[in-house]
Here is the input.
Amino acid sequence: MSRRRFMQVDVFTARAGFGNPLAVVLDADDLDGAAMQRFANWTNLSETSFLLPSTQAQADYRVRIFTPRQELPFAGHPSVGAAWVAVEAGIVRAKQGRLIQECAAGLLDVVVTQDQARMQTRICTPQASIRELAAKLRPRIPAIFAQTERFDSGSCRHVNNGPEWLVAELPDEESVRRFQPPLSLIADLCMAGSAVGLAIFACSESADYRLVVRAFCPADGIPEDPVTGSANAAIAALLNSQQRLGEIGSTFRVSQGREIGRDGVIEIEVDPSSRVWIGGDTTLVVEGSVNWP
Here is the structure.
């Protein structure tokens, strides 16, 4: 057995138990992909990150990200959380508040802000590709949203920013909050569309956040993901492509996770170059070591 440093953090929250949990293995240099996948399946969290030395001179560190079922080229809360852990554990030191993360999706800029009270990390997400919902998937949509009044099936899109998301806009916040997901139908939809999950969203009138989001990944063994960085980045990219950020703002906050007892907050920025940044608080919950061959 090999003893490896380990942290479990809650991402997108300043309170333990209210964000999206992430397992991070710090000493993963000698683990191959099969061993990482076994560990991610064992944690049974939505994602597990493995910190590794960079293979490119520009990068400060490298991360590999796994769900219980598959490796992802990029994911939001595992990237934000891994950056926080890398700094907190002393693996890297931000230069003028900046780092570069290497992952399967490429090299991503990271911004680290820190004061006496807390440290936050923000990451620039991969550029998203957006396309109309595939014709073969369209007949599956009405049954999934049969309970939602005034739902426009034409709002559904594929958005790929590393993982492939299916994204659907609902009429209002209450529709998102009350949505009862038919998980078997969503799992079949995602498998048919080669997507990691289905994300639903609506604009909000709240003074605390401008969007409300939920994300379902039952095909990967995650019925509902608590707080989903890549899905939120995908939604922001979609709204930007539709020139709708004027009504929301180029910097805004998103609420996700209340329906499953979390209450995460993601901070989103779409910069003048149309790059989507996601970030927020990370909270350390578990620190120690694991024995894993």
